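As a warm-up, study this chain.
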Amino acid sequence: ITADAYLTTGVEFRLRNEKYHDNLWGDADTPDDGYLWARVVPYADLHVGKARAFVQPIIAYAAGVAPSASPVDQTRVDLLQGFADVEVGPVTLRAGRQMLSLGTERLVGTRYGPNVPLAFDGARGIVRIGAATISLLAVRPVQPGPKSFDDTRSRSKSIWGAYATLPGLDIYYLGYRNARAVFGGRTGRELRHSIGSRSFGTAGDWHWNVEGVAQFGRFAGSRIGAWTLGTEVGRTFSNAPFVPDAVMRFNIVSGDRRRGDHALGTFNALFPKGKYFGELSPVGPSNIVSVNPRLAMTVTPGVSASISGMAYWRYSRADGVYDVPGNLLRAPGTSRARFIGKEIEATLAWQATP
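Now compare it with the structure written out below.
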């Protein structure tokens, strides 16, 4: 437009088909399920000097979801993002509806794998000090509705905190409030604080990503004491054919050890990425011990492939099995078994253009 003003536009169009067999964890009725996700996400990004306005609507529909499409499957036509920001020296001030991606999205992510990504309404300040970037945020998650133009900010959930990124190290605090939280069949007010750090980097052909989080607070008159440790260590064989990259991931996520003791040990991953342990896993990051070896390779400069295995155990036999959003898939009942199951996942990706 001018030397200090410009407009960028673009669009994403995605079709995703998923098929499941015996998808209800051994219930009496286990209908096979197959459905198609379709979404169109255009955007317009206007910069004028130190100011910016970003608008991104979404058109998201689902076909074949039984018994009906959820808000993660379908939101029809709505506003995914719409925010404005301004740079004031080393500080960027942003307000409006926006997607958030913190670190490797173990606690706050975009939920980009499912059909309807996750956005937040609120304010954010991004401060750059030398090599450090500090993100200050106070937001509420957006709840998609079943009709067009009916997405609204949550009235029961909010999140705030500070996330600092330095070379090779993240340090953060996140506060979370949910007026209608549910754990182990109990409903009540949850106030949870998360303190965490992440070490990541490369050294020669080795690379790593290790993150630990401790949580404390109150839920329905009980104290919260939960934690997680996620590790990822890998090595790239840069001189071998197809440049293979071998990675071992190990995650341990706390669960509730004893029911009725006025203490809650179940970890809350808050708003994690939508495909947490891979593209296929139905299990979420609560009360879990998981081992995940993976081998990836470059077939051609634009084509990559990988194969990985996952195995899952319950961290605590007194707690159940959860999905990625934190819903209880299986209550603990009387079972003393820790092992949940295993899976193998293979991927083939083609990037047609940069």
